[in-house]
Request: fold
Amino acid sequence: MFLSVRELELRKISFDKVFESGQVDFTGEDLEQSSPLHAKGTAELLPETGGQVRVRGSYTVEVVAQCDRCLVRVRYPLKADFDLYYRPVSDLPEEEEAEIDEGEAEIGFYEDGLELEDILREQVLLALPMQRVCSEACKGICPGCGKNRNETACDCKPEVDDRWGALRDLEL
Ligand SMILES: [Zn+2]
Ligand SMILES: [Zn+2]
Reply:
């Protein structure tokens, strides 16, 4: 759904949309959308701000991602609010990029408008934890036999650095 600035100049846009899996592009993010993404909210052009657009609303979705340690599929039910501001790309200082401070960096820019799917994609990625694990106590996969150590205890000895063993053999 494209939130066009020309339309925003005339009126506030309300949205209440359901995006099926695949409509919001999560390619390359190692995750799968496992429920429809429901988003609702409004987009408006703020008067006397030189073209600032405010998009706010909320969404719910469930995504599935692999546990970083044991590779089991983990479900992440997400539900969050967002309140975002965008400025016309013409405001972007061309040679002063280095001077954009932290607070400034959080503001986005638009050209002719904003793609709601892109906004939602970014919000979902932000909502996911940096470290995706099935549980804090996840024991991960055994580097020796490849078994999931949460499910089966294996007989592998803890990893030993073999170079020292080789050295000992030389000395004998
Ligand atoms: Zn795990
Ligand atoms: Zn093992």
Notes: Residues 94 and 107 are 16 Å apart (CA to CA). Strands lie at 2-4, 13-19, 31-33, 37-45, 53-66, 73-88, 108-110, 113-115. The pocket of zinc ion (ligand 1) is lined by residues 67, 69-70, 72, 133-134, 138 (CB under 6 Å). DSSP finds four helices and eight strands in the chain.
